[in-house]
Protein backbone atom coordinates (compact mmCIF):
# COMPACT_ATOMS: atom_id res chain seq x y z
CA UNK A 1 0.00 0.00 0.00
CA UNK A 2 1.41 3.38 -1.04
CA UNK A 3 0.47 5.92 1.64
CA UNK A 4 2.51 8.83 0.34
CA UNK A 5 0.40 11.89 -0.44
CA UNK A 6 1.61 14.16 -3.21
CA UNK A 7 -1.54 16.36 -3.07
CA UNK A 8 -3.73 17.56 -0.18
CA UNK A 9 -6.79 15.47 0.54
CA UNK A 10 -10.02 16.75 -1.01
CA UNK A 11 -12.30 18.21 1.72
CA UNK A 12 -15.36 16.01 2.23
CA UNK A 13 -17.84 18.86 1.64
CA UNK A 14 -16.13 20.74 -1.15
CA UNK A 15 -18.53 19.70 -3.89
CA UNK A 16 -21.40 21.77 -5.21
CA UNK A 17 -24.04 19.25 -4.17
CA UNK A 18 -22.64 19.19 -0.64
CA UNK A 19 -22.96 22.96 -0.32
CA UNK A 20 -26.48 22.91 -1.74
CA UNK A 21 -27.50 20.18 0.70
CA UNK A 22 -26.16 22.07 3.69
CA UNK A 23 -27.95 25.27 2.60
CA UNK A 24 -31.24 23.42 2.21
CA UNK A 25 -30.87 21.73 5.60
CA UNK A 26 -30.03 25.02 7.34
CA UNK A 27 -32.93 26.86 5.67
CA UNK A 28 -35.37 24.14 6.65
CA UNK A 29 -34.14 24.25 10.26
CA UNK A 30 -34.67 28.02 10.47
CA UNK A 31 -38.13 27.76 8.88
CA UNK A 32 -39.28 25.06 11.29
CA UNK A 33 -37.99 26.99 14.30
CA UNK A 34 -39.97 30.03 13.20
CA UNK A 35 -43.15 27.95 13.24
CA UNK A 36 -42.79 27.10 16.96
CA UNK A 37 -45.31 29.63 18.28
CA UNK A 38 -47.44 29.20 21.39
CA UNK A 39 -51.23 28.93 21.05
CA UNK A 40 -54.11 29.14 23.48
CA UNK A 41 -55.06 25.68 24.71
CA UNK A 42 -58.40 26.54 26.28
CA UNK A 43 -61.49 24.40 25.80
CA UNK A 44 -61.98 20.77 24.84
CA UNK A 45 -61.00 20.13 21.23
CA UNK A 46 -61.61 17.09 18.99
CA UNK A 47 -58.53 14.92 18.39
CA UNK A 48 -56.03 16.40 15.94
CA UNK A 49 -52.82 15.30 14.18
CA UNK A 50 -50.53 16.28 17.01
CA UNK A 51 -47.56 14.79 18.83
CA UNK A 52 -49.53 13.76 21.91
CA UNK A 53 -51.68 11.56 19.70
CA UNK A 54 -49.28 10.32 17.01
CA UNK A 55 -46.08 10.09 19.03
CA UNK A 56 -46.90 8.53 22.37
CA UNK A 57 -45.93 4.83 22.61
CA UNK A 58 -46.14 4.33 18.82
CA UNK A 59 -44.04 2.39 16.31
CA UNK A 60 -42.86 3.60 12.90
CA UNK A 61 -40.69 2.35 10.04
CA UNK A 62 -38.87 4.49 7.52
CA UNK A 63 -36.81 4.34 4.34
CA UNK A 64 -34.06 6.80 3.50
CA UNK A 65 -31.88 7.64 0.56
CA UNK A 66 -29.43 10.31 -0.54
CA UNK A 67 -25.73 11.04 -0.78
CA UNK A 68 -22.69 10.27 1.36
CA UNK A 69 -19.14 11.54 1.75
CA UNK A 70 -16.06 10.05 3.41
CA UNK A 71 -13.31 12.23 4.89
CA UNK A 72 -9.60 11.57 5.36
CA UNK A 73 -9.43 8.50 3.12
CA UNK A 74 -5.89 7.25 2.67
CA UNK A 75 -6.40 6.75 -1.10
CA UNK A 76 -6.32 10.20 -2.74
CA UNK A 77 -8.18 11.46 -5.77
CA UNK A 78 -6.03 12.56 -8.72
CA UNK A 79 -7.79 14.12 -11.71
CA UNK A 80 -10.85 12.06 -10.83
CA UNK A 81 -14.31 12.38 -12.30
CA UNK A 82 -16.72 14.66 -10.40
CA UNK A 83 -19.06 11.80 -9.62
CA UNK A 84 -16.36 10.32 -7.37
CA UNK A 85 -16.75 13.15 -4.87
CA UNK A 86 -20.06 11.80 -3.50
CA UNK A 87 -21.76 8.43 -3.42
CA UNK A 88 -25.31 7.11 -3.11
CA UNK A 89 -26.65 5.97 0.26
CA UNK A 90 -29.83 4.01 1.03
CA UNK A 91 -31.25 2.34 4.11
CA UNK A 92 -34.08 2.19 6.59
CA UNK A 93 -34.96 1.70 10.20
CA UNK A 94 -37.57 1.26 12.88
CA UNK A 95 -38.34 3.60 15.78
CA UNK A 96 -40.42 3.47 18.93
CA UNK A 97 -41.58 6.91 20.08
CA UNK A 98 -41.92 6.84 23.87
CA UNK A 99 -43.09 10.40 24.27
CA UNK A 100 -43.37 13.29 21.78
CA UNK A 101 -39.91 14.45 22.83
CA UNK A 102 -37.93 11.17 22.82
CA UNK A 103 -37.71 8.05 20.67
CA UNK A 104 -35.37 5.08 20.30
CA UNK A 105 -34.71 2.84 17.33
CA UNK A 106 -32.47 0.76 15.12
CA UNK A 107 -31.16 1.72 11.65
CA UNK A 108 -29.34 0.20 8.70
CA UNK A 109 -27.55 2.25 6.02
CA UNK A 110 -25.58 1.15 2.99
CA UNK A 111 -23.24 3.37 1.02
CA UNK A 112 -19.77 3.46 -0.49
CA UNK A 113 -16.96 5.84 -1.23
CA UNK A 114 -14.77 5.87 -4.30
CA UNK A 115 -11.44 7.31 -5.31
CA UNK A 116 -9.83 7.51 -8.77
CA UNK A 117 -6.31 8.28 -10.00
CA UNK A 118 -5.76 9.28 -13.60
CA UNK A 119 -2.21 10.43 -14.29
CA UNK A 120 -1.70 13.11 -16.90
CA UNK A 121 2.10 12.81 -16.45
CA UNK A 122 3.83 9.48 -15.85
CA UNK A 123 6.84 9.06 -13.59
CA UNK A 124 9.10 6.80 -15.57
CA UNK A 125 12.08 6.99 -13.28
CA UNK A 126 11.00 3.80 -11.59
CA UNK A 127 9.34 0.74 -12.93
CA UNK A 128 6.62 -0.39 -13.02
CA UNK A 129 4.75 2.88 -13.74
CA UNK A 130 1.21 3.28 -12.43
CA UNK A 131 -1.03 4.71 -15.13
CA UNK A 132 -4.51 4.32 -13.53
CA UNK A 133 -6.02 3.51 -10.13
CA UNK A 134 -9.54 3.02 -8.81
CA UNK A 135 -10.50 2.52 -5.15
CA UNK A 136 -14.01 1.33 -4.17
CA UNK A 137 -15.28 0.61 -0.66
CA UNK A 138 -18.78 -0.62 0.20
CA UNK A 139 -19.83 -0.30 3.81
CA UNK A 140 -22.83 -1.24 5.91
CA UNK A 141 -23.74 0.80 9.00
CA UNK A 142 -25.95 -0.62 11.73
CA UNK A 143 -26.74 1.49 14.77
CA UNK A 144 -28.92 1.80 17.86
CA UNK A 145 -29.93 5.39 18.45
CA UNK A 146 -31.97 7.78 20.55
CA UNK A 147 -33.54 11.04 19.35
CA UNK A 148 -34.77 14.14 21.14
CA UNK A 149 -37.38 16.46 19.66
CA UNK A 150 -36.14 20.05 19.95
CA UNK A 151 -39.57 21.44 19.01
CA UNK A 152 -40.99 20.16 22.29
CA UNK A 153 -39.17 23.01 24.03
CA UNK A 154 -42.35 24.94 23.12
CA UNK A 155 -45.13 23.18 25.12
CA UNK A 156 -48.00 24.67 23.09
CA UNK A 157 -46.84 25.34 19.56
CA UNK A 158 -48.84 25.84 16.41
CA UNK A 159 -46.64 23.79 14.05
CA UNK A 160 -47.12 20.38 15.64
CA UNK A 161 -46.79 18.74 12.24
CA UNK A 162 -43.14 19.90 12.06
CA UNK A 163 -40.47 18.33 14.27
CA UNK A 164 -36.70 18.60 14.62
CA UNK A 165 -34.98 15.53 16.06
CA UNK A 166 -31.42 15.63 17.40
CA UNK A 167 -30.04 12.10 17.58
CA UNK A 168 -27.03 10.09 18.74
CA UNK A 169 -26.22 6.51 19.73
CA UNK A 170 -23.67 3.83 18.86
CA UNK A 171 -23.11 1.90 15.64
CA UNK A 172 -20.90 -0.65 13.90
CA UNK A 173 -19.50 -0.46 10.37
CA UNK A 174 -18.80 -3.47 8.14
CA UNK A 175 -16.68 -2.34 5.15
CA UNK A 176 -15.21 -4.30 2.26
CA UNK A 177 -13.67 -3.18 -1.05
CA UNK A 178 -10.72 -3.32 -3.36
CA UNK A 179 -8.10 -1.25 -5.14
CA UNK A 180 -7.79 -1.74 -8.88
CA UNK A 181 -4.61 -0.54 -10.66
CA UNK A 182 -3.02 -0.62 -14.11
CA UNK A 183 0.78 -0.62 -14.35
CA UNK A 184 3.20 -0.63 -17.30
CA UNK A 185 6.89 -1.48 -17.38
CA UNK A 186 9.67 -1.70 -19.98
CA UNK A 187 12.64 -4.03 -19.50
CA UNK A 188 15.80 -4.82 -21.41
CA UNK A 189 17.57 -8.18 -21.47
CA UNK A 190 21.25 -8.17 -22.25
CA UNK A 191 23.69 -10.95 -21.56
CA UNK A 192 21.00 -12.88 -19.76
CA UNK A 193 20.29 -10.02 -17.33
CA UNK A 194 16.93 -8.21 -17.32
CA UNK A 195 16.74 -4.62 -16.05
CA UNK A 196 14.01 -2.00 -16.20
CA UNK A 197 14.24 0.80 -18.73
CA UNK A 198 13.85 4.22 -17.14
CA UNK A 199 14.85 7.78 -17.70
CA UNK A 200 18.54 8.04 -18.69
CA UNK A 201 18.80 4.50 -20.02
CA UNK A 202 20.63 4.26 -23.35
CA UNK A 203 20.68 1.38 -25.76
CA UNK A 204 23.63 0.96 -28.15
CA UNK A 205 23.31 -0.42 -31.68
CA UNK A 206 26.28 -2.71 -31.28
CA UNK A 207 24.74 -4.73 -28.52
CA UNK A 208 22.28 -7.55 -28.65
CA UNK A 209 19.44 -6.36 -26.45
CA UNK A 210 15.92 -7.64 -26.04
CA UNK A 211 13.37 -4.92 -25.11
CA UNK A 212 10.13 -6.08 -23.51
CA UNK A 213 6.99 -3.99 -22.73
CA UNK A 214 4.54 -5.23 -20.05
CA UNK A 215 1.06 -4.14 -18.98
CA UNK A 216 -0.06 -5.44 -15.57
CA UNK A 217 -3.33 -5.04 -13.64
CA UNK A 218 -3.78 -5.57 -9.92
CA UNK A 219 -6.86 -5.98 -7.76
CA UNK A 220 -6.09 -5.76 -4.04
CA UNK A 221 -8.86 -6.51 -1.53
CA UNK A 222 -9.30 -4.60 1.72
CA UNK A 223 -11.79 -4.61 4.62
CA UNK A 224 -12.30 -3.22 8.13
CA UNK A 225 -14.93 -3.39 10.89
CA UNK A 226 -15.16 -0.73 13.58
CA UNK A 227 -17.43 1.08 15.97
CA UNK A 228 -18.66 4.60 15.30
CA UNK A 229 -20.54 7.36 17.17
CA UNK A 230 -23.27 9.09 15.13
CA UNK A 231 -24.77 12.57 15.42
CA UNK A 232 -27.82 13.47 13.34
CA UNK A 233 -30.25 16.31 12.73
CA UNK A 234 -33.58 15.20 11.30
CA UNK A 235 -36.33 17.58 10.15
CA UNK A 236 -39.71 15.88 9.65
CA UNK A 237 -43.13 17.03 8.43
CA UNK A 238 -46.37 15.04 8.78
CA UNK A 239 -48.19 14.91 5.45
CA UNK A 240 -50.88 12.65 6.94
CA UNK A 241 -51.51 10.70 10.09
CA UNK A 242 -49.48 7.75 8.80
CA UNK A 243 -46.90 9.28 6.49
CA UNK A 244 -44.05 11.62 7.42
CA UNK A 245 -41.35 13.00 5.13
CA UNK A 246 -38.10 14.57 6.20
CA UNK A 247 -34.55 15.71 5.55
CA UNK A 248 -31.70 14.24 7.52
CA UNK A 249 -28.07 15.13 8.01
CA UNK A 250 -25.71 12.76 9.84
CA UNK A 251 -22.02 12.58 10.70
CA UNK A 252 -20.39 9.37 11.96
CA UNK A 253 -17.06 9.38 13.80
CA UNK A 254 -15.26 6.06 13.25
CA UNK A 255 -13.22 4.56 16.09
CA UNK A 256 -10.01 2.50 15.90
CA UNK A 257 -9.29 3.44 12.28
CA UNK A 258 -5.95 1.58 11.87
CA UNK A 259 -4.87 3.65 8.83
CA UNK A 260 -7.55 2.07 6.66
CA UNK A 261 -10.93 3.41 7.75
CA UNK A 262 -11.83 7.03 6.98
CA UNK A 263 -12.21 9.58 9.77
CA UNK A 264 -15.86 10.51 9.17
CA UNK A 265 -18.82 9.35 7.15
CA UNK A 266 -21.25 12.14 6.30
CA UNK A 267 -24.79 11.74 4.91
CA UNK A 268 -27.48 13.96 3.41
CA UNK A 269 -30.68 11.93 3.18
CA UNK A 270 -34.36 12.20 2.43
CA UNK A 271 -36.68 10.03 4.55
CA UNK A 272 -40.19 8.64 4.24
CA UNK A 273 -41.76 7.31 7.45
CA UNK A 274 -44.85 5.16 8.00
CA UNK A 275 -46.47 5.55 11.43
CA UNK A 276 -48.40 2.64 12.91
CA UNK A 277 -51.33 4.65 14.27
CA UNK A 278 -55.08 4.39 13.96
CA UNK A 279 -56.76 6.19 11.08
CA UNK A 280 -58.27 9.59 11.72
CA UNK A 281 -61.76 8.19 11.11
CA UNK A 282 -61.29 5.63 13.89
CA UNK A 283 -59.92 8.24 16.26
CA UNK A 284 -62.77 10.62 15.48
CA UNK A 285 -65.35 7.85 15.88
CA UNK A 286 -63.90 6.76 19.22
CA UNK A 287 -63.76 10.39 20.37
CA UNK A 288 -67.34 11.20 19.44
CA UNK A 289 -68.63 7.88 20.77
CA UNK A 290 -67.04 8.81 24.07
CA UNK A 291 -68.55 12.30 23.88
CA UNK A 292 -72.01 10.86 23.11
CA UNK A 293 -71.69 8.39 25.97
CA UNK A 294 -70.72 11.21 28.33
CA UNK A 295 -73.65 13.32 27.09
CA UNK A 296 -76.06 10.41 27.56
CA UNK A 297 -74.76 9.90 31.08
CA UNK A 298 -75.24 13.62 31.72
CA UNK A 299 -78.78 13.52 30.32
CA UNK A 300 -79.65 10.52 32.51
CA UNK A 301 -78.23 12.30 35.55
CA UNK A 302 -80.23 15.44 34.72
CA UNK A 303 -83.39 13.37 34.26
CA UNK A 304 -82.83 11.76 37.65
CA UNK A 305 -82.30 15.20 39.17
CA UNK A 306 -85.49 16.46 37.51
CA UNK A 307 -87.47 13.50 38.84
CA UNK A 308 -86.06 14.05 42.32
CA UNK A 309 -86.81 17.77 42.22
CA UNK A 310 -90.32 17.11 40.88
CA UNK A 311 -91.04 14.66 43.71
CA UNK A 312 -89.69 17.17 46.23
CA UNK A 313 -91.84 19.93 44.70
CA UNK A 314 -94.92 17.70 44.92
CA UNK A 315 -94.16 16.95 48.57
CA UNK A 316 -93.69 20.62 49.31
CA UNK A 317 -96.96 21.45 47.51
CA UNK A 318 -98.79 18.82 49.58
CA UNK A 319 -97.18 20.14 52.78
CA UNK A 320 -98.13 23.69 51.83
CA UNK A 321 -101.71 22.62 51.13
CA UNK A 322 -101.94 20.87 54.50
CA UNK A 323 -100.45 23.93 56.21
CA UNK A 324 -102.98 26.18 54.49
CA UNK A 325 -105.79 23.89 55.60
CA UNK A 326 -104.48 23.91 59.16
CA UNK A 327 -104.15 27.69 59.06
CA UNK A 328 -107.73 28.01 57.80
CA UNK A 329 -108.95 25.71 60.58
CA UNK A 330 -107.04 27.68 63.22
CA UNK A 331 -108.37 30.94 61.83
CA UNK A 332 -111.91 29.57 62.00
CA UNK A 333 -111.40 28.52 65.60
CA UNK A 334 -109.95 31.90 66.48
CA UNK A 335 -112.92 33.64 64.90
CA UNK A 336 -115.32 31.42 66.82
CA UNK A 337 -113.51 32.18 70.07
CA UNK A 338 -113.56 35.90 69.40
CA UNK A 339 -117.26 35.77 68.59
CA UNK A 340 -118.07 33.81 71.74
CA UNK A 341 -115.94 36.17 73.82
CA UNK A 342 -117.79 39.17 72.38
CA UNK A 343 -121.13 37.60 73.13
CA UNK A 344 -120.35 36.55 76.73
CA UNK A 345 -119.67 39.15 79.48
CA UNK A 346 -116.15 39.45 80.76
CA UNK A 347 -115.42 37.21 83.68
CA UNK A 348 -114.27 38.91 86.83
CA UNK A 349 -111.40 37.45 88.74
CA UNK A 350 -112.71 37.00 92.35
CA UNK A 351 -109.45 37.82 94.15
CA UNK A 352 -105.81 38.90 93.74
CA UNK A 353 -102.85 39.31 96.04
CA UNK A 354 -99.79 41.53 95.83
CA UNK A 355 -96.56 39.86 97.01
CA UNK A 356 -93.89 41.86 98.88
CA UNK A 357 -90.29 41.07 99.69
CA UNK A 358 -89.10 40.41 103.25
CA UNK A 359 -89.17 43.54 105.43
CA UNK A 360 -90.28 45.70 102.44
CA UNK A 361 -93.36 47.74 101.60
CA UNK A 362 -92.37 48.43 97.95
CA UNK A 363 -93.85 46.46 95.09
CA UNK A 364 -91.61 45.00 92.40
CA UNK A 365 -92.16 46.04 88.81
CA UNK A 366 -93.65 42.68 87.96
CA UNK A 367 -96.13 42.87 90.88
CA UNK A 368 -97.08 46.44 89.88
CA UNK A 369 -97.87 45.28 86.34
CA UNK A 370 -99.99 42.40 87.63
CA UNK A 371 -101.87 44.77 89.89
CA UNK A 372 -102.58 47.14 86.99
CA UNK A 373 -103.97 44.31 84.89
CA UNK A 374 -106.15 43.10 87.74
CA UNK A 375 -107.44 46.64 88.38
CA UNK A 376 -108.49 47.08 84.75
CA UNK A 377 -110.36 43.76 84.82
CA UNK A 378 -112.38 44.59 87.96
CA UNK A 379 -112.91 48.29 87.37
CA UNK A 380 -116.42 49.29 88.59
CA UNK A 381 -116.50 46.76 91.42
CA UNK A 382 -116.01 47.26 95.13
CA UNK A 383 -112.85 45.76 96.63
CA UNK A 384 -111.84 44.45 100.05
CA UNK A 385 -108.16 44.69 101.05
CA UNK A 386 -106.33 42.77 103.81
CA UNK A 387 -102.61 43.46 104.46
CA UNK A 388 -100.35 41.01 106.34
CA UNK A 389 -96.79 40.60 107.61
CA UNK A 390 -94.88 37.38 108.37
CA UNK A 391 -94.20 36.30 111.93
CA UNK A 392 -90.46 37.13 112.25
CA UNK A 393 -89.97 40.51 113.96
CA UNK A 394 -91.76 42.44 116.76
CA UNK A 395 -95.56 42.65 116.79
CA UNK A 396 -95.69 46.45 116.62
CA UNK A 397 -93.16 46.64 113.75
CA UNK A 398 -95.03 43.97 111.76
CA UNK A 399 -98.30 45.90 112.26
CA UNK A 400 -96.77 49.08 110.89
CA UNK A 401 -95.21 47.15 107.99
CA UNK A 402 -98.60 45.73 107.00
CA UNK A 403 -100.16 49.21 107.15
CA UNK A 404 -97.49 50.62 104.80
CA UNK A 405 -98.06 47.75 102.40
CA UNK A 406 -101.81 48.43 102.44
CA UNK A 407 -101.22 52.12 101.72
CA UNK A 408 -99.03 51.26 98.69
CA UNK A 409 -101.72 49.05 97.18
CA UNK A 410 -104.52 51.59 97.82
CA UNK A 411 -102.42 54.32 96.20
CA UNK A 412 -101.86 52.14 93.08
CA UNK A 413 -105.57 51.31 92.77
CA UNK A 414 -106.52 54.97 93.05
CA UNK A 415 -104.14 55.78 90.21
CA UNK A 416 -105.96 53.17 88.10
CA UNK A 417 -109.28 54.99 88.57
CA UNK A 418 -110.80 53.47 91.73
CA UNK A 419 -112.56 55.70 94.21
CA UNK A 420 -111.43 55.35 97.82
CA UNK A 421 -115.06 54.77 98.76
CA UNK A 422 -114.99 51.56 96.70
CA UNK A 423 -111.93 50.26 98.59
CA UNK A 424 -113.54 49.21 101.89
CA UNK A 425 -112.98 47.66 104.21
CA UNK A 426 -109.18 48.19 104.35
CA UNK A 427 -107.56 46.06 107.06
CA UNK A 428 -103.95 45.75 108.21
CA UNK A 429 -103.59 42.71 110.46
CA UNK A 430 -99.80 42.47 110.90
CA UNK A 431 -98.74 38.96 111.93
CA UNK A 432 -102.14 37.99 113.31
CA UNK A 433 -102.57 34.99 111.09
CA UNK A 434 -99.12 33.68 112.12
CA UNK A 435 -97.72 32.98 108.64
CA UNK A 436 -93.90 32.78 108.85
CA UNK A 437 -92.91 32.64 105.09
CA UNK A 438 -93.67 34.52 101.89
CA UNK A 439 -97.38 33.75 102.12
CA UNK A 440 -97.52 36.10 105.10
CA UNK A 441 -95.94 39.06 103.20
CA UNK A 442 -98.82 40.10 100.94
CA UNK A 443 -101.95 42.22 100.45
CA UNK A 444 -105.00 40.20 99.45
CA UNK A 445 -107.68 41.91 97.29
CA UNK A 446 -111.18 40.40 97.02
CA UNK A 447 -114.01 41.52 94.72
CA UNK A 448 -117.35 42.25 96.39
CA UNK A 449 -120.29 40.65 94.61
TrEMBL record:
Signal peptide: 1-36
Highest taxon of the lineage: Bacteria
Gene3D superfamilies xrefs: OmpA-like domain (3.30.1330.60)
Region entry Disordered, spans: 428-449
Coiled-coil residues: 285-340
Stretches with biased composition (Basic and acidic residues): 432-449
UniProt keywords, alphabetically: Coiled coil, Signal
Designated name of the protein: OmpA-like domain-containing protein
Organism annotation: Alloprevotella rava F0323
Amino acid sequence: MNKRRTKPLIPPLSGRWARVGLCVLFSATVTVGAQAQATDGGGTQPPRDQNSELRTRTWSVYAQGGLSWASDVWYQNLDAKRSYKQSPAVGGGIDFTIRPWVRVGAEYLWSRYRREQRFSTLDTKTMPVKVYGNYLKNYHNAKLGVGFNLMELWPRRRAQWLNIWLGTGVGYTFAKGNEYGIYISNTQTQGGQTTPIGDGTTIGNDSEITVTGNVRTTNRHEKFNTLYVPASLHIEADVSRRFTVGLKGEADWLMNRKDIAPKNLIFALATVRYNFVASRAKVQRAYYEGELSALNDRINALQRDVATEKARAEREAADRQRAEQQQAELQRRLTDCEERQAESPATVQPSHFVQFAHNSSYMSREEAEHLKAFARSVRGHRLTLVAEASTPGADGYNQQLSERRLARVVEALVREGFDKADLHPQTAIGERNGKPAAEGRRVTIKVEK
